Amino acid sequence: MLIRHRPEWDLPESAATPQHIVMNRRAALGGLGAATMGFGAIGTAQAQSAMKVTIEDPGYSAAAMRFQPGRPLTPQKDAERYNNFYEFGLSKDIWRAAQKLPIEPWTIKVDGLVEKPFTISFDDLMKQVKTETRVYRHRCVEAWAITVPWEGFAMSDLVKLAKPLSSAKYLRFTSLADAKTMPGLSIPFFPWPYHEGLTMAEATNELAFVGTGLYNQPMPKQDGAPIRVILPWKYGFKSAKSIVRIEFVKDQPETFWQKTSPDMYGFWANVNPKFPTLRWSQARERIIGTDETVPTVIYNGYSQWVAPLYAGMKQDRTLFM
Ligand SMILES: Nc1nc2c(c(=O)[nH]1)N[C@H]1C(S)=C(S)[C@@H](COP(=O)(O)O)O[C@H]1N2
Ligand SMILES: [Mo]
Question: Is 3-320 a CATH 3.90.105.10 domain?
Fold first, then answer.
């Protein structure tokens, strides 16, 4: 995933800062409040210690916070202007290019080992599910992290709607591939369309989520409008964006990143600080917005919900790459 190693990861750990304080600080800085500016740019030790406050963002309900994000929200602009969406280019700065993503009409095909395959419009699907807000941490395999409020619905609801046969053991997700609007599709070595997979047990775990919004607005195009996968205990690449097809299959599906870099990225991709990739450490992560680094935690801190999924498995590198 074309990563540049960041030697500044050894910065001292500083405390958490809620979003509205970040915002106030920016307002105070007036014209300096550019989207890409983090605390690194502010700099002084005094400014940093003045911001050592941890409170929950008052804008989100206890229900939204029930998965204990334990970190302040990433400022909206920082989260929405630092993306991975290789269909629109390999840099983090694709949010403008992604505005070309065609999202209307949007349909999702549900097929494979299901009672009756069907295609459903995004609008009709939204009428059949109950949406909620969840504040989750997100940990990219490149060792950066955000904490954001997603809107969406439990993936288990989607599985119920699909009515899989008992022979279905895995799900396979496919993202849109539209050569007219996605310049990344001309990069030859990638096996487009983007595709990912999960076990049925993972997909029906309470944490597995289908995202349709972010910060109380419809999903921004650069974040995978109108509908994407969200799996907070796994590296971000498992969470495919702009989904057009969900297949239920018998065998473990090979994924986009396994085909691209089989020695780097696997099927499981559960977060674990103890297993570095071949090229960099996973011990710490950089917080987008503040640029501080903090220790990475196994399953991205979601063990209480997901560790039982893997209890019977060999706890070796393959489970964590
Ligand atoms: N279709 C598609 N989905 C994708 C990607 C991508 O390049 N294409 N990148 C993945 C990676 S590596 C990460 S970290 C997250 C980033 O999501 P965000 O930009 O909304 O934070 O999307 C994931 N889903
Ligand atoms: Mo990622």
Answer: no
